[in-house]
Amino acid sequence: MHVFQELQKQASTLLPKKYSSLGDLVSIDGSLIDSVLSMDWADYRTGSKKAKLHLGFNLNQGIPQKLFLTNGKANERPFVHQILEAGQTGIMDRGYQNHENFDKLQEEQKHFVCRIKGNTVKTCLEEYTLKPDSIIFYDAKVLLGQLATKQTQKPLRLVGYCVDGVKYWVATDRFDLTADEIALIYKLRWEIETFFGWWKRHLRVYHLIARSKHGLMVQILSGLITYLLLVIYCHDEHGEKVSIKRVRELRIKINNETRELESVPPDPGDLNHKTPESLYASS
After folding, report:
1. Do 174 and 141 meet the contact criterion of CB atoms below 8 Å apart?
2. Sequence-distant (≥ 6) Cβ neighbours of residue 200 within 8 angstroms
3. Closest listed residue to residue 195, CA positions, set 56, 84, 71
4. Digit-coded pLDDT (tens) for 251-269
5. Which of 110, 152, 193, 271 is 20–30 Å from 158 (CA)?
6. Amino acid 150: pLDDT
């Protein structure tokens, strides 16, 4: 964890911030990891074991930020408070909708942009002017939920917009941005999905080599450390973000250098190249 955190800090100082005008953006999501039945701690459902990685992904610089590992059934919502720091904006899908959490995040001075269910009860407090010919069809200060069933205590902003015939309702406490910027921020949430897909496919981090929770955490951290090293390498050497093209080039380079080292005959006088048997005989 220490190595991961130090590399994360190093990458944060090196990489440019893509969306600085929108604030410190952190996409939050969970990813299930297929486990085996002997992994009793990875409780999911009868006859199936899964672990779950809860990840905060820094959207401004495209790097993982914080992570937690639980069994597959664990509730994702409490980890939002642990992943976010004061001043950051967490971007989440509908699974994270929780009116009590929305109030608590505002108390902690942590921001959020979270898609909510379309049938959520809305009490409008103040409507804002809409631009003509915009994808935005709703922008208002509201309270969410029915009064008797966990209605939000603190007002928040609700933005509704439509893309390709699909309506999105997004709750946020960011009153400092335009409705279009709120819609853009939620769209950026998809980058964590892209990261999960790339990370699983090209680094093969979910192929189990450990069974304990501690061992699996070490395995996941190793994958994240590898990713951060690639991020730093691609930035320093090529001035670009990580790509499978650069990963393949790097793999070929490492394989070639390894073959060259293996082809060099050992120096008979170098103890480092002697076998244990020869060292024992010489002693």
Report:
1. no
2. 31, 206
3. 56
4. 898 899 999 888 877 666 6
5. 193
6. 85
Assigned token pair, 102? 């929305």
Q: What's the average model confidence in pLDDT over 143-151?
A: 87
pLDDT reported for residue 175: 97
Which amino acid is located at 88 in the chain?
Q
- Output the six-digit token pair for 196: 């999960």
Provide the strand spans (E) within the chain.
Answer: 25-34, 43-45, 48-58, 63-71, 89-92, 111-116, 122-127, 136-144, 156-163, 166-172
Mean pLDDT of the chain: 90
Report the C-alpha gap between 275 and 11 in whole angstroms.
Answer: 41
Q: HSE (CB half, 13 Å, CA atoms) of 63?
A: 28
